[in-house]
Amino acid sequence: MSLWYAAHILLYVRRKANPDGKIPVWENIILIEADSEEIALAKAEERGKQDEGDDDGTFHWGGQPAEWVFAGVRKLTLCEDSEKRPGDGSEISYTEMEVNSEQALANLLKGKPAAVKLTDFAMEPPSQNTKPTAVKLTA
Predict the structure, then answer these.
(1) What is the mean pLDDT of residues 21-44?
(2) What are phi and psi of 68, to 5 degrees?
(3) Rounded to the nearest 5 degrees, what angle is found at the Cα of 136, between the Cα atoms of 139 and 47?
(4) Which positions ≥6 away from 96 have C-beta within 8 Å?
(5) Contacts of 75 (CB under 8 A, 6+ apart)
(6) What is the pTM for the complete model shown?
(7) Distance in angstroms (rounded) separating the CA atoms of residues 136 and 92
(8) How far apart are alpha carbons 103 and 98 in whole angstroms?
(9) Are 108 and 127 in contact (CB under 8 A)?
(10) Which of 9, 90, 113, 130 is placed for a possible disulfide with 86 were both Cys, Cβ 3.0 to 4.6 Å?
(11) Dihedral over Cα of 122, 102, 89, 84: its sign
């Protein structure tokens, strides 16, 4: 039976000439159709690796030659109504977080600096464990 998963794939920018400093990180959330969590994780990792690269040397970040690097799958979530094809209004993923005040929440909503603790579960890197295992993520 096919199920639907949301895979949270982390990619980061590696500057070729000067790799020091802040590292831009993107979390891409993609839908995966698979018969099991293990197959979904493998498909997500394959997709993340496909997104790596430097566009034949044309990719730049902040005016510097750079490349996208696949960091890993942060989280794999079984979608709500996972046996149905997702459609308009389907919940495909979520992120649990915590803030210390309503002001921090307001800042988060406005895109202003805010201390946020991620409290959802993430995946251990596949090299450390062959089966997906939830671990507590804090930031």
Answers:
(1) 95
(2) -85, 135
(3) 85
(4) 118, 119, 120
(5) 7, 8, 93, 120, 121, 122, 123
(6) 0.79
(7) 21
(8) 12
(9) no
(10) 90
(11) positive
